[in-house]
Amino acid sequence: MGEGLKRKEYEALLEPLEEELVAMARWVAATGARICILFEGRDTAGKGGAIQAMSHVLNPRQCRVVALSAPSEREKGQWYFQRYAAHLPAAGEIVLFDRSWYNRAGVEKVMGFATGPEVEAFLRHAPVFEKLLIDDGMLLFKYWLACDQEQQEKRLHERLDDPLKRWKLSPIDLAAREQYGAYTKAREAMLEATHTRHAPWTLVDFNDQRRGRLTLIRDLLDRLPDTRVDPPALEMKPLDEKPTKEKFGVLQPIRPFPNA
Fold first, then answer.
1. 48/54 Cα distance (integer angstroms)
2. Global pTM value
3. Which residues pair with 40 in a beta bridge?
4. Alpha-carbon distance 146 to 158, whole Å?
């Protein structure tokens, strides 16, 4: 991996991809397609940034980000896939999972939140669950974001030192630092069991997060059907009168910040 992309270079490369993402969303709405994208990977790999890069140009009514918290006691008693299935896309929707049902094969396995038999059952059942989704017409994409331990340590320290990023750091993240090798082993077992013809995994190098985002988005767009749907023709006729300023009666706007 060479030197990381500079911001201006990254933004110049991202702009045409953003236009293609908007075209993709227009195609999804026009055809009633359902797109489900899973973002998995190590802590600090860059899942949130990749999701934000993809979603920020899309209509939030159409594109939803799903980032579930730890399961409640009731959810622990459900069929494992049940709470995830509730968030799957309907016709015309795009859903981005910031971690997904693969929690069971990763953090739950490594940190001891799931038993060995539970993990083994999940690895058998996940391909069957995903085959049902694919057979029903859903477009499912599974991405694993990879980063070296040196990068992970650097990013963890950045979160610790930056008050704006501190919320991203949890006791589980700190405990997981000591389990880098165990996560590698768990990932390989997951890939061996769930990298299938109908729902393959795609691994993306995220040591350079900007380059990783571009790589992931380009891969996704290349794997979609022809998504060209021309936007509807719109005409903005001139106003009949000169534009007017806002007028207020009952209430006035609050003073601008910073106060003059």
1. 10
2. 0.91
3. 144
4. 18
